[in-house]
Amino acid sequence: MNSCYKVRACCSTYGCDYVAHKDVIRTINHESSFSFCMYANSLTDQEFAMKCPECGKRMFLYPVTQLAEVLYYE
Ligand SMILES: [Zn+2]
What we know:
This is CxxH/CxxC protein. The chain is α+β, with helices and mostly antiparallel strands and 74 residues long.
């Protein structure tokens, strides 16, 4: 049984129709995902690279843990 830890991004802007949640990186554990999110969400707009393709506002990052029997790589 393998666990899969990822960071995903989504647009949290009110009224934006972009609803896709995009995988950003894979990490080794939940703590890594969490600290990456803390770091990325604390960056200023200039430093922050991920922009919403719909509204152009910055994306919000959050940690994801998947408990999966089959791991797939994109
Ligand atoms: Zn958006």
